[in-house]
Design a protein that fits this description.
By secondary structure, the chain is α+β, with helices and mostly antiparallel strands. It contains 14 helices and 16 strands. The protein has a domain of 237 residues. Strands 2-1-15-4-5-13-9-8-7-11 form a 10-stranded mixed β-sheet. α1 packs across α2. The longest helix has 14 residues. The protein is globular and about 50 Å long.
Length: 346
């Protein structure tokens, strides 16, 4: 398999090489250990070991010296000028990864009310849960029957045949998640699981890892007053290797007065919802069938065959990520009433 993993920079259309953090360690973990020592593999992807790895990488003095210096910041492309706190105060690796930004200035939202937003600074792939669709790639990243957890048979029926977007946050990214839509929280729960890496090599090697990792599920009804009008939307925040915690901290004024997510809350669009403790991690959005139209460039980019993506190589199918900014356009809500009227006329 090619050591290179490339993605497309959305703003410029440029093909970029991704510096894969701890790539050799991940390749070692997901090959000989997994096959020859399954008990050790299970131990290394456990919650306890994941937190220990996070501590050694982000909290110890050596890690701070290695990861928190200017060379690392330059190589990772981290723009300290957009940070809310003065750059001089970001003097440890953990502070860099948990940084706050002036998102109201540097991550503007589209003006159209029907816009659905990216929940994170991430690399995104969009797809379909409909087995007859050309975009049906869910089985490569997650098992739909497992993803929402055993207690959620009602939600499985709700999103069956719909669409999804998968966002991979690399360690250099801004690690706050923002609300992609406006709506009322109708369910909120945690599903326990492992701490698999979201390195492309690990995803290819370990079948459907995102439905095996620990995750927090928030179901929003957007067909309510003030909502985005895109039906039910599931937002899954998925932990990964070295992620110690997911802190729910919804705030409608910068990052002030953060609140935990609870059933019955109304969440406005584009505001901070949660924070991943440092490392890499993944968001998954699920949409009801026929309720979202993804941005055309995300679909076109996904099918590019001139980009060296490990996903394309590993799954023998064009699967190219687009680098996307939080609060930017992911797609557009499909008006459910108009869609029903159109179908009835046909």
């Amino acid at each position: 398999m090619s050591p290179t993993h490339q993605y497309i920079e959305r703003a410029s259309g440029r093909v970029c090489n991704e510096p894969l953090f701890a790539d050799r360690i991940v390749q070692w973990l997901y090959h000989p250990v997994r096959e020859k020592a399954p008990q050790l593999f299970q131990l290394l992807t456990s919650a306890r070991v994941s937190k220990l790895l996070g501590f050694f990488n982000y909290d110890m003095a050596l890690a701070t010296k290695v990861l928190g210096n200017q060379q690392f910041l330059r190589e990772a492309g981290i723009n300290l000028g957009e940070c809310l706190d003065p750059p001089r105060t970001l003097d440890t690796a953990r502070k860099v990864f948990e940084r706050k930004i002036r998102y109201w200035t540097y991550r503007p939202m589209p003006e159209q009310p029907q816009a659905i937003l990216s929940p994170a600074d991430a690399r995104v792939i969009v797809g379909s849960l409909d087995e007859t669709s050309d975009m049906e790639i869910k089985g490569k990243f997650f098992s739909y029957e497992e993803l929402l957890g055993e207690q959620t048979s009602n939600w499985l029926d709700c999103f069956r045949g719909g669409d999804f977007a998968l966002f991979r946050l690399t360690p250099d990214k801004y690690h706050y998640n923002h609300t992609p839509v406006a709506g009322k929280v109708v369910d909120y729960y945690q599903v326990d699981g492992c701490f698999h890496s979201c390195n492309p090599q690990a995803i290819i090697t370990e079948a459907t890892p995102f439905s095996k990792n620990r995750r927090i599920v928030t179901i929003m009804d957007t067909d309510v007053e003030g909502g985005s009008g895109v039906g039910k939307v599931a937002m899954l925040e998925v932990v990964a290797l070295m992620i110690g915690d997911i802190v729910q901290c919804y705030s409608e004024c910068c990052y002030d007065h953060p609140r935990e997510i609870k059933t019955g809350m109304f969440l406005k669009k584009g505001y901070p919802k949660s924070l991943y403790r440092p490392g890499s991690s993944t968001d998954v959005l699920l949409f009801e069938k026929g309720r979202v139209e993804f941005a055309a460039d995300l679909i076109t980019n996904r099918l590019r065959q001139d980009v060296q993506s490990r996903f394309s190589t590993g799954f023998n199918n064009p699967l190219v990520e687009t680098d996307i900014q939080v609060r930017s356009l992911l797609g557009t809500a499909v008006n459910h009433q108009l869609a029903n009227q159109f179908r009835s006329k046909k």
